[in-house]
Task: inverse folding
């Protein structure tokens, strides 16, 4: 695996080649890219890949990357999405400086270009309905397959031969609001027999009386994406318009508009979309999960959105590292989510603050420990990095331990507590189990033990060996917490693959969220900052032997702090690699 390459070196070698050639041949003298989200949902990890490419390609060649909101679809767009998108990009560490643009600011410019194209005799106003246009165009099979294949020729609209004067008149009256929604469209006059369906007289403008979140009711006609996008790129002097593979069949149209409009000649280059196992990466589907309340919002810690990943405890560094490892290919592939988790675990292992937490507590009573005695023990905050220092934790007669760390009848190779066995209490003493108490229902209510004063943790004289070390909390200090443990939101690896007649929602994992209410943590967790905190850097914790956790913004029952499990300790990726 390539681990040494930096993100800049790795991001899209074939894209670099194109750009290098363009600079050498003088097609462009500098590089300008753009990241063009549509503000109709929150960004997901697929967008993170697009951003990594857009920003790193510009940086690699000493250029800049614009942020442009492709907001020409009034029905679905909203300023709340704009704000969420900006926050997420910033958090990832990509910087668009003052280059924040909106396609909706270009409406007048786009209108003028449409008029210019009409004057050239290359666009016409059509009275066919949306449905009729589709029928005249021919089968949609080829575009669904994303292939430019031979398909039976389409049919010219009866309105195709309108004069330039008539078209100019009708188009200005479309803008003036004289016609009903859907009554007319403006179409590019290209070729209804073109093998690529995208080129069969695509619609440039439609009539839609819908208020836009930025331009309000000033417009009742809105430009279509295929027309708007190349011209917005041209307006901004974007040299390399990098986009995902589904736009490949649109590239001839991209070029057609730029040529006919006679504007700056941006170049479109496509790369493979990111697909992840157990994950759905499309705003449309993510929106459905949110709208149908199948998750608790766009930033639900199970969502593949940047905000969801952040709330879950992902770091910008781990996301960027992941992007660098997957590289940029020209064919679509499905990436194993275990690789993403591996990148995260690598970083957390270096940077997480170790504490102890007991998720399923049972009491441990040290019978030979004086009731009133309390001792300070020293715990290491991060064995990977001594600069994290040490902390004092208090130790006394009654402790919480995990219920699973005691067995009345131990299975083979059980090295934890059972009557007669000895374990080390992390940072503390070796204890030997002397017995246990039971509730009326037969469950264990307390485990009893004795400690050996000669075995205090870190004591050089301690050379007694025990097989197991368990974590614990001093009952008097333990902080009640709630813990949320997550599993994949979708059970199958291919989350979007559903049997005939099925629905992607059938693939939802019914056990993707588990709430643990009666857990305890070290008292220092009281001051943990939630992930979205604006005043201070939130700490990422490793609950020893459990996994990595971060504080959530929600409060649990009785105001208890809530901790999200980011990821477990066990590495599945390394195992996959060894196979
Ligand atoms: P979605 O399917 O999630 O709605 P989109 O392409 O419609 O995605 P946009 O807001 O238009 O969403 O995307 C902005 C940019 O991000 C585009 O350049 C698009 O190519 C890119 N992009 C979107 N999804 C992915 C993905 N899964 N992998 C790589 N790039 C992506
Ligand atoms: Mg899109």
Result:
């Amino acid at each position: 695996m390539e681990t040494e390459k930096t993100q800049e070196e790795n991001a899209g070698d074939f894209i670099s080649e194109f750009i290098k050639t363009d600079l050498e041949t003088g097609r462009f003298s500098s590089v300008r890219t753009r990241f063009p989200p549509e503000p109709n949902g929150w960004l997901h990890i697929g967008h993170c890949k697009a951003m990594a490419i857009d920003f790193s390609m510009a940086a690699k060649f000493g250029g800049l990357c614009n942020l442009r909101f492709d907001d020409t679809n009034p029905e679905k767009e909203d300023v709340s999405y704009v704000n969420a998108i900006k926050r997420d990009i910033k958090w990832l560490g990509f910087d668009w400086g003052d280059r924040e643009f909106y396609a909706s600011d270009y409406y007048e410019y786009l209108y003028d270009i449409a008029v210019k194209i009409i004057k050239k005799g290359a666009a016409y106003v059509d009275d066919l309905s949306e449905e009729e246009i589709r029928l005249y165009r021919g089968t949609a099979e080829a575009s669904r397959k994303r292939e430019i294949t031979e398909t039976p020729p389409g049919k010219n609209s009866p309105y195709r031969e309108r004069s330039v004067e008539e078209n100019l008149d009708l188009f200005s009256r479309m803008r003036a609001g004289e016609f009903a929604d859907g009554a007319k469209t403006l179409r590019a006059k290209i070729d209804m027999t073109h093998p690529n369906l995208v080129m069969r007289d695509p619609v440039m403008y439609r009539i839609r009386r819908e208020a836009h979140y930025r331009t309000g009711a000033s417009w009742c006609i809105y430009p279509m994406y295929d027309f708007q996008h190349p011209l917005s790129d041209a307006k901004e002097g974007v040299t390399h318009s990098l986009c995902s593979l589904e736009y490949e069949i649109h590239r001839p149209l991209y070029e057609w508009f730029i040529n006919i409009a006679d504007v700056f000649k941006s170049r479109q280059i496509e790369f493979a979309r990111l697909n992840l196992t157990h994950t759905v990466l499309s705003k449309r589907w993510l929106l459905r999960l949110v709208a149908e309340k199948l998750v608790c919002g766009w930033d639900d810690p199970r969502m593949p959105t940047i905000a969801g990943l952040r709330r879950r405890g992902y770091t910008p560094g781990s996301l960027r590292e992941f992007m660098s490892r997957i590289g940029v290919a020209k064919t679509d592939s499905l990436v194993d989510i275990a690789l993403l988790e591996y990148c995260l675990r690598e970083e957390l292992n270096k940077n997480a603050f170790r504490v102890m937490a007991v998720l399923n507590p049972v009491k441990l009573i040290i019978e030979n420990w004086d009731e009133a005695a309390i001792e300070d023990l020293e715990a290491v905050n991060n064995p990977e990095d001594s600069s994290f220092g040490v902390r004092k934790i208090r130790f006394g007669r009654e402790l919480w331990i995990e219920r699973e760390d005691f067995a009345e009848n131990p299975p083979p190779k059980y090295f934890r507590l059972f009557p007669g066995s000895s374990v080390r209490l992390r940072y503390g003493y070796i204890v030997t189990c002397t017995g246990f108490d039971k509730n009326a229902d037969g469950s264990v209510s307390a485990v009893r033990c004795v400690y050996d004063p000669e075995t205090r943790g870190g004591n050089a004289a301690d050379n007694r060996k025990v097989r197991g070390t368990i974590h614990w909390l001093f009952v008097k200090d333990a902080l009640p917490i709630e813990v949320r443990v997550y599993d994949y939101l979708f059970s199958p690896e291919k989350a979007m693959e559903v049997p005939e007649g099925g629905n992607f929602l059938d693939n939802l994992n019914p056990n993707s969220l588990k709430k643990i209410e009666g857990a305890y943590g070290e008292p220092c967790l009281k001051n943990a900052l939630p992930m979205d905190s604006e005043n201070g850097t939130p700490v990422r914790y490793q609950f020893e032997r459990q996994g990595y956790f971060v504080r959530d913004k929600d409060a649990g029952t009785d105001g208890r702090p809530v901790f999200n499990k980011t990821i477990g300790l066990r590495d599945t990726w390394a195992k996959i690699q060894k196979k």
Summary: Confidence is low (pLDDT under 50) at residues 1-9. The pocket of adenosine-5'-triphosphate (ligand 1) is lined by residues 36-38, 46-47, 49-50, 70, 243-244, 273-274, 281-284 (CB under 6 Å).
